[in-house]
Design goal:
Helix content is 0%, strand content 56%. The chain contains no helices and 15 strands.
């Protein structure tokens, strides 16, 4: 039986510094968690939106050439699906209204957060990460920690892989599962001669 230890959030949006001055943090959730060197590390998904509001327009953030950009779009050219998502009327193209990255936090006991990095730990850079990266899952294998994460772009939702030895330096390894796959967790030990994962194949529309 699992017992809830407390009923408060470990990390709230107002605890996290935005990645840029013109953005605000609107969500902090779905962390990957690992213990290393007597410290508990959390790779938090941080969702951000532009602060600026313009009459008759909606801000659609994305990454281009490894740099964050904001596309200002006439609001009458899109249908608002919900506060997170719009659909272009001309071609049914879906676009997120926020962009996510992964941010590292540290805890000594797993209950109290001792520190949160002020800058993104893993930031969307590649074309397949155009609309952000989300929902890290961390598995220790050998002397490394392997991090699966969701990458979102106009091409769909894929699972990508990164790794670290020390939670100071991170290396990206690219896509390991094509669209539409997410929430992949790699098992820490081989079954037979192979490493095995469990994940969720999605029928969700492309965004």
């Amino acid at each position: 039986m699992i017992q809830r230890l407390f009923h408060q959030c470990l990390i709230r949006p107002d605890n996290v510094k935005p990645s840029r001055e013109d953005f605000e943090v609107v969500g902090t959730f779905n962390p990957g968690v690992a213990e290393f060197d007597n410290t508990i590390y959390l790779l938090i998904r941080v969702a951000e939106m532009p602060r600026e509001k313009r009459d008759g327009q909606i801000a659609l953030p994305r990454v281009e050439n490894r740099t964050g950009v904001i596309d200002w779009t006439q609001i009458d050219t899109v249908n608002i699906v919900d506060e997170r998502l719009v659909r272009f009327k001309s071609n049914n193209f879906l676009h997120l209204t926020y962009i996510s990255h992964l941010r590292l936090a540290k805890s000594q006991d797993g209950i109290k957060i001792n520190s949160i990095d002020e800058i993104p730990t893993i930031f969307p850079e590649e074309p397949y990460e155009e609309f952000g990266i989300e929902d890290a899952r961390i598995t220790p294998i050998g002397d490394r920690f392997y991090i699966t994460y969701v990458a979102v772009s106009r091409y769909g939702i894929v699972t990508a892989l990164a790794s670290t030895k020390d939670f100071l330096h991170f290396e990206k390894h690219g896509i390991i599962f094509p669209t539409e796959n997410k929430d992949v967790v790699i098992f820490p030990e081989k079954i037979g001669n192979n490493y095995v994962e469990i994940g969720r194949a999605s029928c969700r529309e492309r965004v």
